[in-house]
Design brief:
single chain, three-stranded antiparallel β-sheet, about 10% strand, about 130 residues, mainly alpha, 3 strands
């Protein structure tokens, strides 16, 4: 828990400067991973790190900030598509350094130690 909080604080510190939450950042990254194809709410929920978060509310905030847009699915009018906007891409570009900074936190670990750590964490989650 100490390490989770340490990493979370580090992320929160950078996100706060741009008025974005960790959950919003996560959804934006999911949208960028699908771009230029849109995502539906089900896909976002499946790929979200925090599955307990209210994805609909998060998406509404992203749309309000004009970082994402909602469109009707042409094949199924009941389904809503979410697409990353140019403004959303720009916010993510401003935060790309965070990934590199996170990688650098693990600089003291060998590749073998990182693989072991990942395997152990996977084992805990199974």
């Amino acid at each position: 828990m100490y390490t989770v909080n340490y990493l979370g604080y580090n992320l929160h510190h950078h996100l706060k400067k741009l008025d974005i939450t960790a959950q919003q950042y996560n959804v934006l990254r999911i949208l960028r991973g699908q771009y230029p194809k849109p995502c539906n709410l089900k896909l976002i929920k499946e790929r979200s790190i925090d599955r307990m978060s209210d994805s609909s509310r998060i998406i509404d905030k992203l749309i309000q900030k004009k970082w994402a847009e909602r469109t009707e699915c042409p094949n199924d009018r009941r389904q809503i598509n979410i697409l990353l906007t140019k403004k959303g891409q720009d916010i993510l570009k401003k935060l790309d350094f965070v990934d590199q900074e996170t990688i650098e936190l693990f600089i003291n670990l060998s590749e073998q130690e990182i693989k072991l750590m990942n395997n152990l964490l996977d084992k805990i989650r199974d």
